[in-house]
């Protein structure tokens, strides 16, 4: 019996896609990678996922797990051999349980992140993972890449929000690890092996996630600043003044936000005159568990002192939810503005916060010396040291000329990241985009240990081949 017929017997013929029906599943979100597949299979249960994997293993067919297909590194795109089966988990989209006494919820991997947030809120709880693609990305993909987002400063990456997993292994067995425990020291932490592995060790089918009380009050402010160093100093003061209540601290180059309001006239900066032309902006959010008055008082004390000391040149504090959403919308529109401006060379890096100012200064200068006139698009999650350090074409340069230099740009930027004790992937994963770069920046021992883990859990090398590690 053919592989296709066996797969159809498991999930039904309508859920095994071939031909042109596969097109949305074999190209990545950025349109950078396009592959081919034998079929796209859409199972509806963990048992069906396990049965699909067993068929693939028995036929030595590569398996590419897929969720919302929002990867920025080609992590869910098959290669061009046409041998792989893409396993799309979109139909595994149930919220299985919410336990408000234990502050946990158990959800399937195909649940859209926004739906998980809404289900938690419906139970008067907060699931804090938040990122620009939350209306289309899935929890399985978030776990597979250990996604970050805007509230890592307070709540951590996705790994920090997961207590237990259900996983289909590379041999088609089901690991029932959906434990809602915050303490479990019974051996190796298998959960953390699968989280961030980008589907190269197994397929996450469900997770037990942490919930938190909804904040009593939130305060959002946008700040105008002169330098990145000033932003770092304000962050330090905000941490001291707000403690764990500081849930977000974003930083953005002035020209980046100015491009957003130029391209999307319906949006506007909450500043006028010179403040609207500031070299840098910061966006911070406080979530208070006491009262709106308490939150406002803390906000005014910390920001007032920063203004008096010349660290902040202007500040706009949101007076209502609509104004807060408008500020966050400015930040979240940066990727859309980038797309309007044309292709760019993107970097998702993390740097020790104390070194970020120096990194930006040194790297900007090195890029200008090597590629005069090149434009810098720098923004990101300053609170956890994660920058999206992107490079756009010079005014007299074509997109093709920019992309022709991308390897040299990657090497220059990543060498600088490494020199500043940073990482070349903060929250987007490795996928196929950064796979070969790992050999430059990880030690031989690290790579050896990673390959040993891969071999132990996926002995045939069928799980998402060509991602994270070289074959």
TrEMBL record:
Residues 33-214 form the FAD-binding PCMH-type domain. Keywords: FAD, Flavoprotein. GO terms for molecular function: catalytic activity; FAD binding. InterPro entries: FAD-bd_oxidored_4_C, FAD-bd_PCMH, FAD-bd_PCMH-like_sf, FAD-bd_PCMH_sub1, FAD-bd_PCMH_sub2, FAD-linked_Oxase-like_C, FAD-oxidored/transferase_4, Oxid_FAD_bind_N. Pfam families: FAD-oxidase_C (PF02913), FAD_binding_4 (PF01565). GO terms for biological process: respiratory electron transport chain. Its cofactor is FAD. PANTHER family: BLL6224 PROTEIN, D-2-HYDROXYGLUTARATE DEHYDROGENASE, MITOCHONDRIAL. Belongs to the FAD-binding oxidoreductase/transferase type 4 family. This is FAD-binding oxidoreductase. The lineage of its organism: Bacteria, Pseudomonadati, Pseudomonadota, Betaproteobacteria, Burkholderiales.
